[in-house]
Amino acid sequence: MQRQPLLMQGNEACGEGAIYAGCRFFAGYPITPSSEIAEYMAMRLPQVGGIFIQMEDEIGSMGAVIGASLGGVKSMTATSGPGFSLKQENLGYAYMTEIPCVVVNVMRGGPSTGMPTGPSQSDVMQARWGTHGDHPTIALTPSTVEEIFYETIRAFNLSEKYRIPVILLTDEIIGHMREKIELPDPSEVEVIERVKPVCPPEEYLPYDSRYDVPPLAVFGEGYRFHVTGLNHNDKGFPTNVNRIIQEQEERMINKIKKNAADIIKYETYMIDDAEGVVFAFGSSARSAKAAVNEARRMGMKVGIFKPLTIWPFPEDAIYDIAGSVKFIVVPELNLGQIIYEVERASKGRTEVVGVNRVDPEPITPQQILDRILEFK
Description:
With 376 residues, the protein is α/β, with parallel strands linked by helices. Helices cover 37% and strands 18% of the residues. It has a seven-stranded mixed sheet with strand order 3-2-4-5-7-6-12, with helices on both faces. A five-stranded mixed sheet has the order 9-11-10-13-14, with helices on both faces.
């Protein structure tokens, strides 16, 4: 098939990736800089038999997405920092009840209203720990328009495969930029569907502890089951039994931990002979590439480690890299968040330094290069 090249905005690529993945329900509330995702879904979903609804607020949006997913429809919402904060309680409910859905956070400055039109990468720790209690997390961090398209598809696949909400972390820069993208034929794209039960309805256990990821029935297809945010037993009903609570929460964590190799994805650039590495994600990875190319031109052997999965954190890969380089530079549009994960994973094997910025401008290649040159 001849692919038609398009000039597509990052937020539009997110919407189109969702359509390719089989998303047929979107509930959201307008918020800069993610609003174009909602606008795109409002246009595209009716064309493919889906439903778009603008809810009264971010809390209702997250609740509607959970309900639609229980009805068997792949569902998504999109927001930015303040809206992501409002979604946290219902997001925790989705973690506890193991309901697949995709939440897009086009990050902007904060705290509070912050800088609505400026970029940020300050929600990476909120994506991991934003809701209360121990819970598993999958969060993806694309850095180009094309990656947004494919990582949105992967977000839905991981969500359906592991019965978990998946967070897609982009930012204002890549959400609003336009780049060339060639959309594939839908037949070329892997799309994963949730596993449904095949047992008689009276034997169905929605939280069957014999499975890391129990099959998920669809409301309205003959299976009746209880859903609650309380700790629950295999049937979904609340329980106060210590052993069951411990096993239930450990299973939720372990289904992600055991499958980390399937979930974690990253790219490297000029890393084979590198004496220093730049750990960069999202829009900051774009500046990092220019900085590394210039450092190479100046005779410094530097490479890039770019995570496309930020949670679970690729700690084993960072530990290995830390043992072979003199330094790791971590540029991020915040005052220091993911650098502490890099330090933790490095276990003291190398020096880890940051490049940080929180004004409404991107980290420049020169800022990263200046940090690299400190090790010359």
